[in-house]
Design a protein that fits this description.
The chain contains three helices and nine strands, in the order αααβββββββββ. The chain has about 200 residues and is an alpha+beta fold. The protein has a seven-stranded antiparallel β-sheet with strand order 2-1-7-3-4-5-6. A two-stranded antiparallel sheet has the order 8-9. A hairpin with a 2-residue loop joins strand 5 and strand 6.
Amino acid sequence: MFPQNFPNEYSWLKNIGVLPRVLQEAIPLYGTAEVIGTGSSKTILSWRDTLNQNGVKISGYSDDGVPWCGLFAAYVAFKAGKAVVDDPLWALNWAKFGDPVARRGTDGKLSGVDGRKPSLGDVLAYKRPGGGHVNFYIGETATHFVGLGGNQSDQVNIKAIPKAQCVAVRRPLMTSPPASMKPIQLARSGEIAGNLA
């Protein structure tokens, strides 16, 4: 499941137990990159085609020059057997995915819903100048969420994004979360530093 180019600092994911289904689907795609310049990644275009063929409408995605973080999230959610949000290319639509875990209130603070905390495999929706971004929670530092996502520097990788940009944390619907689905405290290097539960 873990590709050869998967970063060693996140190798703890191999030993944490059964991973949330979305991460089981996302991790093998690590390193998938768009084609720079003319042309598009056949792999990324195949995600669009698979979704369209299975009733998940992806419109407006003609090539990998179009932002594709939402396409990646949709493909992963679909492969994991989860319902995909309407218009999944719009990253901020992922703030409506699954169950709420945390959201930004009118006071500007990100706070948990019903005592929940962001956990391994949750969906993180971010607002940024000109649009949004979406990825899957791997862990966090005091100031950043660390997420596995698509179109992060034009590829699928793991990236730290300031918590201040996160507008919602959503959990895939499931009947029995795996034991690994918990808050993860990371060192700046990406290595696990502790459990926030």
